[in-house]
Design goal:
Distance between the termini: 55 Å
Strand content: 15-25%
Helix content: 25-40%
Largest sheet: 12 strands, parallel
Radius of gyration: 28 Å
Length: 478
């Protein structure tokens, strides 16, 4: 084929388009052994940050990268780092101390459906299945035998093809024997022990749980305890389906943290259990019940930044009871980003956060909103609410309040609130619960607030985003 370049599984035509076909290995393959040589790019000795997307690099390459690039501080979101560290441990390497400061801990194979005797197959796409990001990768099978190698054996298959398919399945089953430890407690402990052994300079830990655990962890201290011994760990980024799966981790390392991010993925859970958990906490309905927000805030008193904007069902952020505080709780907290926050929770956080600079919320509610079909009343902040907030904390350093909807009882309350915050430079979106000219405060109050917004812009360089009823009045993105 002139002007065509062969590739695995297809070729590029002279027009540059990819033409797919099934590749078959040649009858004769000659393996040539070369003399060991070092062909490293000189940049390897100084490279510190290599931002890799989650699934672009196979986990088997991690030991090579760490050996070739001794100054590496971050591999981005490379999801196979735990498997790479496990391989280093199995090679008997004891004294390797990396310079890694960030770890992306991808925890998959938590469901029975992930443990497959044979990979999934599709007539159109073939098989793209993998075992796990934390186990040997078998993509080379499809690369060398074609994407249809895992298609179930049929009576029309020739003998050679049957032998190839049988061989591919044998490789799959052998690789499955090296899949991650099925007992999740033992597996997590292995991951943490390897991090403690090889990543002594860990600053940020990101953990992604692909689904909820079948059972609660029996001994969180035994699993997560070594992380508390890493003095440099100050950032935790969690993506989870159930707060109970990570509550023990938060309780153990929470006091060390300066930055915390939580992202709940409710689509990985059934709706009834989510509603129960959100309404009653992570345990049964008793005096020890804890909501997501309470687990995080009670156990992380030294935070400087808290980001829980995509947490829980319907992005609710509520305590459900008074928070148990440590001495100087939240004295360093400067930035908060949460979703729908209840008024009682807002008052508790407001009173503690003496140096807060930015506050980002969706809206203030009277009670948490359990589902899209349930109702929860927006709180229209009254003069009494505002005075309660300011008496507990005058917020001398608060510069920005960003909200999808910040409701006030009237324009007078909104103006009073804004005037009392001396460092405020940006607020919105401000809503009056009734801006209609018939009833409510009438047109005088409307135009007065419009003039007030202009004066604040001139005198304090302040931006007030508010619902003024005009055509260009659109909701601001958070």
């Amino acid at each position: 084929m002139e002007d065509q370049m062969e590739i695995d599984g297809g070729f590029y035509s002279s027009f540059g388009s990819l033409v797919q076909y099934d590749w078959y290995r040649p009858k004769n393959i000659e393996y040539v052994e070369e003399e060991p040589t070092s062909k490293l790019n000189p940049i390897a000795s100084s490279l510190q940050v290599l931002k890799l997307p989650a699934l672009t690099v196979k986990a088997e390459i991690v030991p090579v990268l760490l050996k070739a690039c001794p100054k590496l501080r971050s591999l981005g979101q490379l999801s196979g780092i735990p498997y790479g560290l496990e391989q280093i441990s199995k090679m008997g390497v004891e004294n390797l101390e990396t310079n890694l400061e960030e770890i992306f801990l991808y925890v998959d194979m938590l469901d029975d459906i992930d443990w497959k005797e044979t990979p999934d197959y599709d007539d159109h796409f073939g098989s793209r299945d993998k075992i796990s990001t934390n186990s040997p990768n078998v993509s080379f099978i499809s690369a060398n035998f074609g994407r249809k190698i895992f298609k179930p054996i049929s009576t029309n298959d020739e003998g050679d093809l049957i032998r190839e398919k049988t061989f591919a399945l044998r490789v799959w089953k052998e690789a499955m024997k090296l899949a991650p430890e099925r007992w999740i407690e033992k597996r997590l402990k292995q991951y943490v022990d390897n991090i403690f052994k090889y990543v002594k300079k860990l600053r940020r830990l990101t953990m992604f749980l692909t689904s909820a655990f079948e059972d609660d962890l029996e001994d969180p201290e035994d699993i997560w305890g070594n992380l508390a011994e890493i003095s440099t760990l100050v950032e935790l980024d969690l993506k989870y389906a159930r707060i109970g799966d990570v509550a023990g981790l938060i309780q153990i390392v929470g006091k060390k943290l300066k930055k915390f991010t939580a992202f709940c993925i409710p689509s990985m859970r059934d709706m009834n259990s989510l509603i129960l958990e959100q309404g009653l906490g992570i345990v049964e309905n008793n005096e020890n019940a804890q909501t997501e927000a309470l687990v995080i805030c009670e156990n992380c008193p030294n935070l400087e930044e808290l980001n829980c904007g995509s947490m829980s069902l319907r992005n609710n952020f509520h305590f459900g009871r008074p928070m148990v505080c440590q001495p100087n709780h939240f004295e360093n907290l400067r930035h908060i980003s949460v979703g729908r926050i209840t008024i009682d929770t807002l008052k508790q956080i407001w009173s503690l956060s003496q140096v807060l600079e930015t506050l980002k919320i969706e809206q203030v509610l009277s009670t948490p909103q359990m589902t899209i079909f349930s109702t929860s009343t927006n709180v229209n902040l009254t003069m009494a609410d505002i005075r309660t907030l300011l008496l507990s904390n005058k917020m001398h350093k608060l510069e920005s309040i960003k909200a999808f909807m910040l409701m006030f009882e009237n324009f007078a309350a909104a103006k009073f609130f804004i005037r009392q915050l001396p460092a405020l430079k940006d607020i919105g979106k401000v809503f009056n619960h009734d801006i209609s000219w018939e009833g409510g405060e009438g047109p005088e109050a409307f135009f007065d607030f419009e003039d007030f917004a202009e004066r604040m812009k001139e005198e304090r360089k302040m931006t007030i985003r508010w619902r003024n009823g005009r055509v260009d009045d659109v909701a601001d993105e958070l």
